[in-house]
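Batch job 17 of 40 flagged for manual review because the log was empty.
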Amino acid sequence: MALITLRRNLCHFSDFRINGALGALKNQPVHHVHNAVKGHLYPWFFCSLQPGPFRVRFHHACCKKFHSENGNDLRPVGEPVFPPVQDWDSFEQNLEHMDEQVFYRRLNNCTSPEEVLGFISTLQTLPDTMAAGALQRICEVGEKDGDERLPKEIIDNPVFQALCVQFEQEPSNLSNTSLVTALQALTLLCVDPQSNLLLTLVAECQHRVKRGSLEVHSLCVLAESLLKLEGPGCTTLGLIIYQLQHEKLEDFTPEDIVALYRILQACPEKVDQHQTFLNKINSFSLSIVYTLSPKSISQMLTALVVLDQTHALPLVIKLAKYVVRHIPYFTDKELGKVLEAFIYFGHHDRFFITALEQHVVSLCLTLDPEIVSKVMEYCSRKRILSKPILNAVAEMFVCHSEKFSPRQISELIEPFGKLNYLPPNASALFRKLEDILFTHFNSFPPKTLLRLLHSCSLIECHPVNFMGKIFSPYFLQKLQGEESYLDRLSRAQLTQLLLTSILECPFYKGPKLLPKYQVKSFLTPCCSLETPVDFHLYKYVMFGLIDLLGARLYFASKVLTPYYYTIDVEIKLDEEGFVLPFTFHEDVHKRVALCIDGPKRFCLNSKHLLGKEAIKQRHLRLLGYQVVQIPYYDIETLKSKLELVEYLQRKLFSQNAGICW
């Protein structure tokens, strides 16, 4: 194992002959030490640093003696100060005799680069593995506010420079672990890939890969570092993946398996080429799920999404089982990735919903707005009517609406409309929303604003004060943008808002939507405001109607009305209540609209209609139809055709004694 002698490295230049780094600092001007080493380090970083004097106070035994002899302090006013190393002064012995666990425990207790450097400055020699660990810790704790560049005073520090110089000068003497760990640590910084340091380390790694001397873990670490430095087009990456494919998966640790997913995730265009290998990994991963941390579970699910592993549902289901246990321990970002994966794979279960409800309700006022939006998107996409979540989110929005961006506000409000739910504080919620729209109307992207207002109308919170604006030619032009025509979904939403203003807001006297922007039907294959009828349920009910009415002639199917809605079954009645053949268009006194509602027209596992179905039935009643609902959960209880006919007779004729057949 290579040892890095910190003192020797600080004085390896020709004009440093005194034994020990502190001796060199003691007998040379400080700016001389700085300039001698600075040239080796500065090219490694993108940031441009200006030269300047650097002095540092080492808490070291000989340094203390020097202070005592001179009767003053080396630290001038205004220069960087490294914090005390507390009781670490006792670490005067070499690390050859120091317990490795003690070293890493001390290292992990450091919370800043200054503390790390202060700690290792008390040591004379450092094994290369520990030196690499120290370098990695410096990079990890040095990240501040998302900026990966280390401060100038850390880069200038002689101890930090000594670590880097040793890795550049003697890479062949490093162990595999030290080599790849050092390279991984430096990728956490804004390091120039063309610098001597990086080129040297990468060249040594490539040499060892070609020799086949790197073990599984080192290959995984190296692959991720090369991806960060050179991207997925790196030629060495293909060789690494080839070698990993020929290793036994039993030799991989769970962390290596997760790293392997991340590596393959970075090359989604080659997924077909790696699919056989992925199938093996997916099968093997079932046996290690129980060992994964929340972070690893989130990363594995994300990789499965990127790699489109829709056939790996057993793995997704097993991961979901452990997600339930880890929900309180996910970061907001990790939980967001989990929800994205569940949306993608269509996964849901009551245990996950219960755990998610507990998490959101307990932290609703402190959750990040982005994760709140993601939770609401998940509930909306999976048609999950979770009243605890919806109530908690509504309360959070009323209390902290200023935290949400226009996009997040739309993502938060739309599920209330889709799921056809008004929270207990609905009046406060929509009053707050109206205030925001009055103040920031122009801040909302046109399509986002239209979706938001349309969703409000689904639950009878009609945006009357804004209808004139969205029907105006100016807004419609903005909505269309640079396209040659307005998309069909937007036109359908505008048309339904127009119909709402006529049927439910007769007091509205503002501008109307021009006919050229209106659609003729709300039911279309790609972007529908109605849910198509369940085919099997429709066929079953149709046979019952034939037996009840005597012939297929007495009802029509999938009738498009003049009011844009499509009726599943329409029955016409004359003035005396007799059923007319559907071909008759005269003497029609009443029309009965049968809504044959399958499971997809309801919230998941409930009897609660979705918003778009509720507004349809509401509008049909206002248009004069007698609406008769035939829900799937009633049909499922019927055991024979006779029971079906009796059920249809009760539904149709008990509501209107005047109907005859």
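Reviewer: the log was empty due to a logging misconfiguration, but the result itself is present. The chain is about 55% helix and 5% strand. Unflagging and moving on to job 18.
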